[in-house]
Amino acid sequence: MNVDYKDRLENCGLVFSGMSPDGVLPETVEYPDHPWFIGVQYHPELKSRPFEPHPLFASFVEAALVQSRLV
After folding, report:
1. What is the pLDDT of residues 41-52, one digit of tens each?
2. How many Å apart are CA 17 and CA 40, to the nearest integer?
3. Residue 70 has pLDDT above 70, yes or no
4. What is the pTM of this model?
5. Measured between alpha carbons, how far is residue 68 from residues 17, 34, 61, 62, 64 in Å?
């Protein structure tokens, strides 16, 4: 992602919730007002197991279940 647009995207509600250690590159972005929207630059699937999912996958499934009850 081009950080030249960071201010513009933040003005539209995108939250840069995780940056690289040097503070230059976004590692995690999210929309707090969305039922479940998160983008990551890292690979959570490498830390996930069938009975021990990475928290991102577990929260996605939980949000999908909640959303499915609203339909």
Report:
1. 999 999 899 899
2. 10
3. yes
4. 0.78
5. 27, 15, 10, 10, 6
